[in-house]
């Protein structure tokens, strides 16, 4: 029995090799193994230039994220843009790292993540966990390049980022009313101008924040005699500032993956975090019995189903073994598999934007961190596609939140910072 099966396989191999040789001779357009009777076979068909030079190997070509089409979206004039320029979801890099409290290097994050995304493309982009190919669905997705942020002056950098997001979010979408942005950091401070831009479109945003750290620290939690308003804009204080400027939901924002040491001798940091409107899930919660599903339940119970939600992923939420290339590592973190599992369970939420930040290629090893970040960005864009186009109705429904906010919160966080900075300096110098 064994012998006859081997013989049968041998005969099959010989005949397959023979017929593939014939096909190759007669029509080089087709793969060698295909029979002449294969669908689409024609002896007279001439290859197009696309046939000849369109397909590429993953490591070839000029590297945009996942080989997506590239367009400098900050150069699109919304008043004279044509339909061919419109898009629904876009990668935007924010190479800014001068608001870090420890190791810098995330200015190289966007290019590092793009490079690590080279094995992603539309052709093999089907997400088996989701059952869709995000790159080949309703959404027109592209790579918008980077915001050219200055590394010399954080006040100016914040102004640039804020204006960039305002401009990007004022572009019309292709199918969506407003495009969604998948931001690649950069240090975590970039979240402030992102939330500021989103606020002007949607009103208050609920934030789910995957991070080992709180990032709701008041600026004075970095003790120093020396202080200016600009020095208070950091990658550990941006959520505190976002709350101060009324950009986030008043409650039910959520941290996932916390394990940072806390200030002084107690729970003061958590109390302040409560006041900023956050609930907390620590990394150790995953070790409880049914920890992973309990964490997912808590996330779904906390986040609103009918309001705009923003997902911010600080790569340091992953264990340092899974993400060594970051500025402020904390041991005892999530695996990639856990994080992706949790993100997949967030299908159906109204994700209006997302980021992956704190990716620092100079500290990375063997592209471990950038590859994780590229996969997480892919999962986040999958969620955006699953949620469908953003509609005028959705925006109008949520903008009502603004009516209750009293103060004119459209005044930009940044203009206030600059204004306060100016007054502070004048007082200091001349009074
Ligand atoms: Mn962070």
UniProtKB/TrEMBL annotation:
The similarity comment for this entry is:
Belongs to the arginase family. Agmatinase subfamily.
- Recorded protein name is Arginase/deacetylase
Query: What keywords would UniProt list here?
Result: Hydrolase, Metal-binding, Signal
Q: Which residues, if any, are the signal sequence?
A: 1-19
The record's listing under PANTHER family reads:
ARGINASE/AGMATINASE (PTHR11358), GUANIDINO ACID HYDROLASE, MITOCHONDRIAL (PTHR11358:SF26)
Q: Which Pfam families match?
A: Arginase
Question: What Gene Ontology molecular-function terms does this entry list?
Answer: agmatinase activity; metal ion binding
Highest taxon listed in the record's lineage: Eukaryota
Q: Which InterPro entries match?
A: Agmatinase-rel, Ureohydrolase, Ureohydrolase_dom_sf, Ureohydrolase_Mn_BS
Which BP terms in the Gene Ontology apply to this protein? putrescine biosynthetic process from arginine, via agmatine
Organismal lineage: Eukaryota, Fungi, Dikarya, Ascomycota, Saccharomycotina
